[in-house]
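Entry type: protein chain
Record version: 2
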Amino acid sequence: MNLNRRELLKLFLGAPFALAACRTDQPAAFPEGEIVGQSAGIGHILREGRSFDVAADRWESKKAVIIGGGIAGLSAAWKLKKQNFHDFLLLELEKDVGGTSISGKGDPVGYPWAAHYLPVPFAENTELVSLLDEMSLTDGRDAQGQVVVKEQYLCREPEERVYYKGRWYEGLYLNVGAGEEDKRQFTEFQRRIDEWVNWRDVSGRRAFAVPLETCSDDAAVTSLDRISFADWLRQNGFTSERLHWYCDYATRDDYGLKADQTSAWVGLFYFCSRVRKSGVESQPFITVPEGNGQFVRHFAELARDNIRRSQMVVSVVPTERGVDVITLDGNELRGIHCERAIFASPMFTAPYIIRGFRDDAPFDAGAFQHNAWFVANLFLKDRPKPRFAKDFPLSWDNVLYESPSLGYVTATHQKGIDHGPTVLTYYYPMCHEPDGRTKLFNFDWRQLADVCLTDLSRAHSDIYELTERIDIMRWGHAMISPRPNFIWSGIREKAVRPYRNIHFAHTDLSGVALFEEAFYHGLRAAGEILKART
């Protein structure tokens, strides 16, 4: 976009900070870098409505095809392989599988490009626990039968800090300077959360649980989906600015939406679903420098002979015998006859890919709305110097209170590498702008790098000097947006059902973009295929 620097920074970082930043000249030396990831133009080929005719000698046959190599597709492949079902292909548009769980390789450690942790699952999530066992991440069970994850895979201290008015403080809730009313409201908010954690319906189901399939559908709970999380806070007398910021940060972090854009149901889900019982902390995080890339590597290695990368699926055609899948392999069209297919791509793409979908749509694909992000990885030659000796130290998660970004995670933190070069992964959800996706792709690398570095300079005055390189990935359809009246509207339930011999599997079907939900739907769809063959 043709904006001057002040206009650019105002758009992304707000007018007051943009004005202050533009009063200071940028350093003469600007780091190198580039936009990485697949071009958005490739996916837009689907919108052109082309016809695709495959030559007779370019067809092959498989029992099943998985369309999409994100966590849902990879989980489906994992399930099929474990059940000795090998006659399938997984087709991935990008050159790397993993979706938003992809990672990069670097020095001194790898780093995430989006998803970077997994909360330790409860014992009842048996198949996810079995994956952790298989990957040797666990160390038995505790006295209550809950899984014990090896210490080296649990996020090490210090976990979180927040930057506010020139200082770093421990944790995410801003305790410093909190008045008595702030403290009272925060205590009351925690009490309400405990009530929902302990709540059970007549069938013994929790209000909020992972996966969502196990949640209660009682009206007392589902009615929360009709209002925004910000409205719920106001209706319950919560007016504290600090509490509102804390809740807004939570929804931006997990859903890419502000609290007034997010369903109250998912807002409470964030705080309740990973707490076993009132009075205990939320489940700890499993993480490594490359984030959830460790799970991608495990899945991809297991199914390496079944995966084809850089394959753009351009048409999925239900037939009398099964399904025909047509791919664009470079400039060549290829086809696969299969009995069944797993559609593990975002649901909004279904009308563009599945032939006949629009004629008698089994569900409203347009209701599955996504939001946009950009993620930057900064390669630093050394750690930023603290401004004050009493500042809370560099942590895994580092949040800027007065910024619309989510701050950054430190890739070297988990390895205990506390000095020298590091990689900082910076996250910016485009939830502050209408039509954020279009605007995001109108900015080039230099502009987005300037936003990132300027934002971080509020806390690290030496960030330009320390940053040797900054690479940026633009996620146009980063994650599903759980806005009010979506989770319990009935749309998801319709989309879960197979359409002829096509089975759907994607985190979209839960309405929240979580590893556990993608894993669940991948296993569910794979199970449907296995059952159909018996």
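Comment: The domain at 42-103+291-368+486-532 is CATH 3.50.50.60 (FAD/NAD(P)-binding domain).
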